[in-house]
Amino acid sequence: MNLFLTIIKSLLLVFITIAALQIGAVYLLRFLQPELETADLVAIMPSSKDRIAKGCVAAANPGATHLMLINNSPKALAKHAAKYGVPESVTMLPGGTSRSSFEDIHVTVQTALDRNLRSVILVTSDFHLPRALFLMYAYNLSIDRELHIQYTAAREQTTPLKRLLLFYSEIVKFWGSVAELGGYLLTAKLPLDSDKVMAVRNKLKKILLLVE
């Protein structure tokens, strides 16, 4: 019984520590965001208007050779790019198909590898950024060619209650993303391609998540 309680306390401590790091990282990354440099690829993770605006601005200034909006076609992206002054010389890439944050990163990295691109600017929201960067750097360690990673984030305008719910959602989703990453590294297959895994994931989302 004492051993069981010790294990539970240890797991709880780990959970609380990681949650605190996630929350702290949101605020820390707001102040540590470096000035962007020209990159081979700007990858916009799905997909609010603010994220699209941030990504298009990054593609125009400081500049990029390729621009991609996950889960969108080059034709759809071109309309946004024209609005924000992205040069016509920037190549619009297919955004692939993604069902999760891990798969967003998978699409981004595989696109870079397939096209021999060396540097990426990752675009997402400030709440999502710590998890996205964790996945990006962890995935980067598993490939033969290291990608130079930069980032820019759209700031979520929220009420205090919504902010609290977003923090909770990110804390829960972090563990799901880690499970997906681990499953892919072990099997070289996307875990969500399994109907059983997808069913379990959807059930857990309904039970645990208060906000998408």
How would you describe the overall organization of this protein?
It is a single chain. With about 210 residues, this protein is of the alpha/beta class. Helix content is about 60%, strand content about 15%. It has a 5-stranded parallel beta sheet, with helices on both faces. Helix 5 (about 130-140) links the parallel strand 4 and strand 5 (about 150-155). Helix 4 (about 100-115) crosses helix 5 (about 130-140) and helix 5 (about 130-140) packs parallel to helix 6 (about 160-185). The mean pLDDT is about 90.
Number of distinct helices = 7
Helix content: 55-70%
Work out the strand percent: 5-15%
Basic shape: globular
SSE blueprint:
Layout: H1 2-32, E1 39-44, H2 49-63, E2 64-69, H3 74-83, E3 91-93, H4 101-114, E4 119-125, H5 129-140, E5 148-154, H6 160-187, H7 195-208
Parallel strand pairs: 1-2, 1-4, 2-3, 4-5
Brief summary of the model shown:
By secondary structure, the chain is of the alpha/beta class.
Characteristic key phrases:
212 residues, alpha/beta, 7 helices
